[in-house]
Amino acid sequence: MSIIRVRFAPSPTGYLHIGGARTALFNYLFARKNNGKFILRIEDTDFERSKREYEDVIIRDLKWLNIEWDEGPDIGGDYGPYRQSERLEIYKDYADKLIKEGKAYYCYCTEEELEIQRQLQLKEKKPPIYDRRCLNLTTKKKQEYELQGRKPSVRFLVPYKQLEFQDLIHGRLSIDTKLVSDPIILKSNGVPTYNFGVVIDDHLMEITHVIRGDEHLDNTYRQLLIYEALSWNPPFYGHIPMILAPDRSKLSKRHGATSVEELRKLGFINKAVVNYIALLGWSPKDNTEIMPINEIIEKFDLSGVLDHPAVYDIEKMKYFNHYYIANILQNTEILQALKELEKLNELEYNLQDNLKLRVIELEKNRIYLLTDFFELFDIIQYDPIFSDDILNELNNFDKNIFEIVINSLNEFDNYDDIEKIKSYLKDVAKKNNLKPGSIYKLIRLLLTGKHEGPELPKIIYFLGKKETIKRINKIKEIV
RNA sequence: GGCCCUGUCGUCUAGUGGACUAGGACACCGGCCCUUCAAGCCGGAGACACGGGUUCGAAUCCCGUCAGGGUCACCA
């Protein structure tokens, strides 16, 4: 039994999004679970749209998710190169071989001609299938085209038959290949198209299992046919269901945060994201949800992957994030993530690690996104900003309560003990026959300019006596 | 339009002919706690798309209908 080899083969035409990340993750899980190899291959044969910077972003984001590959463009391997743009001469030989054997043919049709043809067929409500007008071109006609300056593309000649294969997720699938149009395998500029490139590379890289999105289901038949023409054994295929937007349409930018980069900027934790997307279309036998990656690997089973699409629900992912922050991550891990996040969002808090760590410890139970920590950071680092409404509210407060609050805070000394702050404030209220809520509200407003936020004793604790008094005196002058 | 795939609470799912009064999680609603917003704890509401079969028995098997998605590029 040869070793299992899988791959993730993105084209660098955009950011790594949730769907791609999940496909990569399932390949990674399958490889790790079966002690196989996971390969990253860049499919950059579309020179118009491919950009090196996208490749960099994809690699960076996969790394952020801790999805690691054994071979790839950045680290090399025995089956390289791992960028299709660096393998161009390989494909041409195989295309020539197919032509020589009569399994492929030159096509001199221009893109415009093909487009007209397609529209015509569509208009007649017929499937847009290439009519093979270039299949039996005479030498004379070919020369004529060449003289016109036309450069031919190479089309694969689809043999008509009933074709079926066993999909790892959907089971037995079949189609009548009469419905499959002869695909172009080499563009007129000599660059392979997707359907040809994957076949050649998957074979040469000895890929054993192709795990990819459902949108490739129909491509599989074309690819299977090419394997057959080349007398190669095809890999196993597993088509995982797509991830849909809440409105059940294809997930895209307009549906909010769908790229890994955006999620990171919002304050998601990599482990939480991985855990969540692993559960999109798959669940372990025992229905556990929160699992560290090694447990996911251990429990992962491709046959347990569902065959119907899943809707992406960022709210549930937020809960996972909350759970990881509150219960799983070490404070130092959170601190590290916070630092990266500050850099990413171009924020700078001049707070010592020690202080940040204390904020983390005291706040992590109520935090959903890492960015939520910044709320308390802001309070500590910056003076409050008062809106007119808040100023108004402060003016309407009983001046006596003002005095009581200021005096009490001045007399108090145990600012380094949250419990003592808490009980002290309670006592102050009691002694003066006030509802605790009223003085809490006032102090909160004075210190932060807001109605909501972290627990008040915590705020006072982090501000300390000096800063607390300073802020109160400052606002007192205005009101 | 052809072809292909799919259909369990709003969402992710458990379920593989009897253990289903259909279980869990997020979200939602209510309560407790309480100095705000939360978090936490407790409770509640909420689904087998529809119609036919097969069977003693169907969420589970078959057929049809409807609905959703994918795909039909010199994009991947």
Task: Give a quick rundown of the structure.
The chain is mostly helical and 479 residues long.
Task: Provide structural commentary.
This protein has helices at 18-33, 52-64, 88-100, 111-123, 139-147, 194-204, 217-229, 260-266, 270-278, 293-299, 314-328, 331-344, 353-363, 373-381, 388-395, 399-411, 418-431, 436-448, 456-478, and strands at residues 5-8, 37-40, 104-107, 153-156, 162-167, 171-176, 184-186, 209-213, 236-240, 243-244, 310-311. The protein is mostly helical. The protein contains 19 helices and eleven strands. The protein binds one RNA strand of 76 nucleotides through helix 4, strand 6, helix 6, helix 7 and strand 11.
